[in-house]
Amino acid sequence: xxxxxxxxxxxxxxxxxxxxxxxxxxxxxxxxxxxxxxxxxxxxxxxxxxxxxxxxxxxxxxxxxxxxxxxxxxxxxxxxxxxxxxxxxxxxxxxxxxxxxxxxxxxxxxxxxxxxxxxxxxxxxxxxxxxxxxxxxxxxxxxxxxxxxxxxxxxxxxxxxxxxxxxxxxxxxxxxxxxxxxxxxxxxxxxxxxxxxxxxxxxxxxxxxxxxxxxxxxxxxxxxxxxxxxxxxxxxxxxxxxxxxxxxxxxxxxxxxxxxxxxxxxxxxxxxxxxxxxxxxxxxxxxxxxxxxxxxxxxxxxxxxxxxxxxxxxxxxxxxxxxxxxxxxxxxxxxxxxxxxxxxxxxxxxxxxxxxxxxxxxxxxxxxxxxxxxxxxxxxxxx
Length: 383
Prior knowledge:
Layout: E1 4-9, H1 13-24, E2 28-34, E3 52-53, H2 56-61, E4 65-68, H3 73-84, E5 90-92, H4 95-107, E6 112-114, H5 119-131, E7 136-144, H6 153-163, H7 167-175, H8 177-189, H9 211-220, E8 224-229, E9 237-242, H10 244-247, H11 253-256, E10 266-270, H12 276-287, E11 302-308, E12 317-320, E13 327-333, E14 347-350, H13 372-380
C-alpha cells in the first residue's frame, strides 16, 4: 500500500514535531514543509533539508493531505484559501486561524478540521466519547495551573529560551490570550456559550469544586465553554456533564467518584493533551473519510477581541496581537461588539487613535491592512 503524502505548513515546535511523526510512520510520508523563511536558515537535524520549500504551488501539487500549524491566522488564511481550490482535505492545529478566518471556509463546505492534540481538539474528541455513554455536557473546560495577564519581557524571554518556544507563544500562553482563543473556538464549534465576557476563569483548589460551572450552565440553559486555574492540575481538559442513567446508581463507586463536590454533575477528565503526538490519529480518521472533528462553524457567535494592556495612541504600533505586550485576548459575543478587531488580525499594526488601558481595540482605532484573513472574518459577520 502506497504511503499518503502529507504536506506541513509551519516551522515551529508543532510543525517539526508532526514532521518527525510522519517520517517515522508506516502509513504516511512527509512530502514538503512549506515555509516563508530562507531555506538555508532552517536547521533541524531530524528533518531532511530537501523537504523544505518556499513554493506554495509545489507544496500543494505534491501533497495529498495538508496540515496547517503555523499559528499565524493571517498566513494560514492565505495558504488555506489556495489549498481549498484543489478540494484537498486540510487538517489544522491552529485555533488562531479558526476563530479569525475559519468560518469563511466552513460556510463553503471545505473539508477543514482541527486535529486531536491541542485543547480544542481534545475537548471535541472527549465530547464524542462521553456522548456515546449518555452524558450531556454542561461545561467544556480548559485546565491551567497559572496565568499572569501582564508578564514582563524579561520573564517571557527566560521561559521562551527554557522551553525552546517562540517568545510570542509563551506570552500568549501566560497572559491568557491562547486559552481565550481556544475556548472561543470550542464555544463556536461545539455549540456552547460563555458565561460572561472573558469567561469566569475561577481559581480552585480541587477539581471536584466545579458546582459553580453547573450553576452557570443551567442559568444559561446551554453548555458553557470555560477555563479554570487549579495549581497542580494535570495539563489536560475536562467536561462537566449530566447522566440520568448513571444517577440511578448513586452508590456505584465508578460513577460516584466522578461527582462534583455538591453532587450536581459528573467530571470527565482527560489528564493530558499531547499536541503533535496525537495529530496522526486525526489524519487516519480523515483518510477513512470520517466527518470533521471541529471547525468554527459557518455562523460563529463568539470572537476574541484585543484589550489594551497599556495606554496606546498615534505613533504606537501593535507588533503582535496574540502573544505581544500591547494587548491581550478577550472572548466576546460578536453581536455585542461588532466593531471589535479580532486580536489575531493585529500584526505590526499602527494605532491611529488614543486607546486607554483595558479598552477593547476597535477597527476605528487602528490602520488595519487588507488581508485575506480580514476578508474572511468580515464574511462571517451576521447580517
